[in-house]
Amino acid sequence: MSKSATDIMGDIVAAAAIDAVVAFKTASRGVPNALLRDLGAVHPNTTLADLPAEVRAAITGGVRAAFTRLQKEGYVIAPAGGGPTGPAAPPRPRPAPRAPGKPPVVETKRRPPGPRGAPKGPPKPR
Which of 55, 66, 69, 71 has the most CB atoms within 10 Å of its CB? Predict the structure, then answer.
């Protein structure tokens, strides 16, 4: 019986979290204060560049392992659009260039001719 994608992703996230903790321990070089400082520096706006090199390497390895595992389980990794992955559609033909010396046609909405300030709508009956 094959596992669902949810089960596989749960395993992957748990493994990534454990790998990150181990990487933080490695980055602190066994000094508890350094470990606490590194963990305390992590906040919701932390980027990958803000993390120690060991943690970045663990995250990169975890992502690669996750994609590999999903592919081994038979899942297809597709681009964000969710569309089929195949050759790109041929480019659409460009519109024919306009004749030289002619300005482009621009459609605008113009007011009907009449005096400015004239009431809008049909004339009122008397």
Answer: 55
